[in-house]
Structures are given as C-alpha cells and as structure tokens.
Amino acid sequence: MGSRDKLILFDTTLRDGEQSPGASMTRDEKVRIAKALERMRVDVIEAGFPIASAGDFEAVGAVARAVRESIVCGLARAVDRDIDRAGEALKDAERARIHTFIATSPIHMKMKLRMAPEQVLEQAVRSVRRARRYTDDVEFSPEDAGRSEIDFLCRVLEAVIEAGARTVNIPDTVGYNLPKQFGALVRTLIERVPNADRAVFSVHCHNDLGLAVANSLSAVLNGARQVECTINGLGERAGNAALEEIVMAVRTRRDLFPCDVDLDTTQIVPTSRLVSGITGFPIQPNKAIVGANAFAHESGIHQDGVLKSRETYEIMRAQDVGWSMNRLVLGKHSGRNAFRTRLKEIGIEFESEEVLNQAFVRFKELADKKHEIYDDDLQALATEASLAAGNERIQLLYLRVCSETGETPTARLTLQVEDGEHQATASGSGPVDASFKAIEEIVHSGTELLLYSVNNITTGTDSQGEVTVRLGMGGRIVNGQGADTDIVIASAKAYVNALNKMIRPHERTHPQAADV
Ligand code: KIV
Ligand code: ZN
After folding, report:
1. 175-191 confidence digits (pLDDT tens)
2. Collapsing DSSP states into helix, strand and coil, what is residue 511?
3. DSSP string across 428-466
4. 204: Cβ below 6 Å to ligand 1?
5. Residues within 5 Å of ion ligand 2 by Cβ?
6. Which tens digits make up the pLDDT trace of 140-156?
7. Atom 8 (ligand 1): residue with closest C-alpha?
8. What per-residue confidence (pLDDT) applies to 1?
9. What is the DSSP-derived secondary structure letter of residue 40?
10. What pLDDT is recorded for position 226?
11. Which pLDDT belongs to residue 390?
C-alpha cells in the first residue's frame, strides 16, 4: 500500500444491524455471517452485546471461537458488569476488542443518564481501564457525539486515550449531521485532542437523513481511519452506513481518498444475499452495488454505449463486487462428500452429523426438482436445517392448495404443534392467503401481518422462491423466512417460521437503554 494509509473496516451487522426491528439472528446464523465477513477480510466484526441476554452472550462466544483472521468485538455500556460480560464472552477469541460507550451530548446526559458531565467523564475513564484488564484492544465511543459540545468531547477523548483506548469512535447516533459539518467535527477533534496520535479515529453514522455513507466518507477525507458499517446498510431505524457503498466509493475514487481498504470485494454480493436471506430484509432492486438493477442497463442508449465501451456508463465492474460468484456447484449426482466440502468452503458447518444428514436429504429432494444447485440454494438449505434442528414448536407437515380460474382457492394443511398434529382447511383470496388462514385456524396467534415478500434465490423458473413474512404483536416485530421451489409452500414455511420466533422467550436489554 506504500505511503497510503489503511482504512479499517469495522462491521456491525451482527450488533447494530441486529437492532433493526425483526432482524434478530440465531447463534448459528451469526456464525455463518461472521465467517462470510471473515472471508471478505473485514478487519473487525462486532459480534453483539453480550450483556443483552444469555443468547447474545453465547452468540458472541461462538463467533469468537469460529473466527481466526478478523478481530472479534463485543459491545459494553460503560458499566463494570457489561465490560466483565464482554470480556468473558470474548475469552476464546484469537484477537478480541471491547467496545465501550457512554453518551456525551447534553440531552442524553441530562434526560437519559441523569448524570453530570464530570460523572460521565469519570465513568468513561473507569470503563476503559476496566476493559484493558481483558484486552489491549479497547474502543471507546461517546454516544451522540454528533450533538455533543466540542470542548467536552475533546476532554473525554483525551482522557480515554490516556486511560488506554486505542480507537475512539465518533457516532452520529441519530443521523443528524450533514457531511461538511461531520467532516469538520472529525478534523477539529483530531487537531485539538492533544494525544490524538495515540488512537485511531473512527466514525459510526446512522442514516436517518439518508446521509450515513456521505457523512462517513466526509470523515475519512478529514482524517478518520476506521469506518463502522453494516452489510446492506442494515441497522437501527433507517440503518447504518452500508459497507458495500463505503468500500466501493473508496476504491472507485482512489484519486480522492488518501487510504485503501484491504477487502475481497468479490465477496460483497454473496455476503449481501446471505444477510438478506437470514434477516428477511429484502434488497431493493435499485440499491447501489448489491441491488439487482445496480449493473442492469435498461435504456437502449445505455446498452449501446456499454457494449461499445463499458466505461461509458459503468464506473465499476459487476464481477469485481461478486455478481458472477453464485457458482453452480452441485447437481443431483453429487454425493455427501461433495455436499459437505462445498458447505465448508462457504462457511457452513452443522452442529451435528444428524443435522448434516437431514440437510443432505433435503438437498437431494431439491436437486431432483431443480437439477442445478447454487451457493445461494445451499445457504437457504442451511437456514432451514438449523431451524429444524432448533426443534421448532410449530412445524409444517403437509400442505395442499387448490387454485383454479373462477374458483375460490382453498388450502388444507397439517401442523405439528407441541401437543400433536392438527389439521385445518381454509379459503382465501389466493393460495397464500388461504394457507395463512389455515395456519391461523390452528394457532390463533393474534399477530398482524406487516410484510409479505417473495424473491427468487437464483434465476430461472425452477429457482427456489425465498419468502419473507413479517409479523407484529404488542410492539414486537419478527421476520420469518422460507424457501422452496413451490412459492406457496415457501410462504407457509415463512409464516410458521415467524410464528416460532414470536413465541420464543425474548428478554433482551437494548444497548442504548439508560443503565449506568
Ligand atoms: O449509534 C450509536 O451511537 C451506537 C453506539 C453504541 C456506538 O451504536
Ligand atoms: Zn449505532
């Protein structure tokens, strides 16, 4: 890289991304995403918030054990018990980071923390020192820095660097800043904090005004050397800065940025699809870099130009971000070994031989129907197998739908619910509606259907349909997924999956809850 700096990529899909309503992930799903991030050569993976729940603690531990190349990070509020829990969760990591934070804006200190600025400063220093007992790699964030007073911010940053923070992260927690202003904030901090040269300055921008990427890039032009981001821009409310957009902007406009990212960009599209499939957050077709239309040229003039010379309308190459990476890998004659080997190559490892065997049976059924199996099909299979292994309380055993022109569609199905098998028949405006009604005949969940969406996993009419169902109840939102070559069956699976998530116990502390 010569004299150019390195831009550190800190991915928080598994932590801030998971704070998107409905995007919660299981431990195994988190490990699969973490392995994909590691394959992409992301520098730091924020795996979760270990104090949030026993499940979060376990998931951070599992990621710490699975990942060897990237730094694995755990989030902790600036309180002893959070930091100790993070330290414990990360104990098996090859390289561990603790990220501790406390709010520094007048409104957060007064209304949320009910603490005086001097108390906040003291708590910040104390928590960095405590985190250093577990690892040398400690990051500190003054939450809501984008609305904090600059003199106080400088004092806090100087004190935490003195206490041992190696990275200081400047969050625009509520997505309030504009690019010029945010860049100037970062530059001023770097110039005014006396020991700024002893820490990496990082930024963490939210997208409430659609400016998360622009603000992050402006900060990089003004001296930030770590960017916190998520795959597909997933994250709290309107989301975080999208990793793929940051990376490709810095790569494509290398003439303007004084730093480089060390990332295997061909992993961007496969990782984006994996995250979308697991969380059930579809990718809009016109989304930059990873949207289905990002490299499609609709108008005749553009097509003509691109055929003569690609650079007329394309500033990046589709294959550089992994658009051709969905490799045809297996077919109906592939055996168990080929199946296991390819799963391993794309980071899927099942917890037991029994789960692998179930997945192999399902693979053979699928290969009989669609002959050519791609990596994305395998990812969908893995999601299904790990769900089945989780002993879901409701399972779809049988579904038959009748749909005919001029007739009302009907669905007949059998569900396994804890106390045994139940059957129901229902009619609806379409076969999917009829199936959902039949499920509700048995379950009476009281949930509200908030979203229903279908995407094909690969191309062609024999592709598997991947369905997302979002349900809400009492302020809680869950996303369910299902995949099948028959989209009505995929829909019923997705609905059942969402119901299973809804009935799972859900006791979880939110990182931004006041608790110091
Ligand atoms: O947005 C934010 O301020 C955060 C912090 C925990 C870094 O997510
Ligand atoms: Zn955030």
Report:
1. 999 999 999 999 999 99
2. coil
3. -SSHHHHHHHHHHHHH----EEEEEEEEESSSSTTSPEE
4. yes
5. 16
6. 999 999 999 999 999 99
7. 16
8. 46
9. T
10. 98
11. 63
Does ligand 1 have an atom closer than 6 angstroms to the CB of 140?
no
How would you classify the pairing of strands 465-473 and 448-456?
antiparallel
Q: State the Cα angle at 376 between 374 and 379, rounded to 5°.
A: 115
C-alpha–C-alpha distance, residues 418 and 211, integer Å: 47
CA of 99 relative to ligand 1 center, distance in Å: 10
**Which atom of ligand 1 is the closest one to the Cα of 143?**
3
Q: Cβ-count burial of 210 within 10 angstroms (0-12 exposed, 13-18 middle, 19+ buried)?
A: exposed
Alpha helices in 291-426 (DSSP H): 300-308, 336-345, 353-370, 375-389
* Residue 400 pLDDT: 98
3-state helix, strand, coil in the chain (%, to 5): 45, 20, 35
pTM for this entry: 0.90
Written as one string, the DSSP assignment of 172-200 is: ETTS---HHHHHHHHHHHHHHSTTGGGSE
pLDDT per position as a tens digit, 390-438: 668 999 999 999 999 999 999 999 999 988 999 999 999 999 999 999 9
Q: How many angstroms separate the Cα of 296 from the Cα of each of 300, 324, 326, 376?
A: 11, 13, 17, 20
Q: How far is the CA of 141 from the centre of ligand 2 (A)?
A: 10
CA of 227 to the centre of ligand 2 (A): 12
In sign, the C-alpha dihedral spanning 287, 290, 296, 297 is positive
Answer yes or no: is the C-beta of 171 below 6 A from any ligand 1 atom: yes
**β-pairing, 96-103 with 71-77?**
parallel
143 lines ligand 1 (CB under 6 A): yes
Q: Whose CA is nearest to atom 2 of ligand 1?
A: 173
Q: What is the rounded average pLDDT of the residues 481-500?
A: 94
The answer, yes or no, to whether any atom of ligand 1 lies below 6 A from the CB of 511, is yes
Q: How far apart are CA 186 and CA 172, in angstroms?
A: 11
Burial class (CB in 10 A: 0-12, 13-18, 19+), 297: middle
Could you tell me if 72 and 90 are in contact, meaning their C-beta atoms sit under 8 angstroms apart?
yes
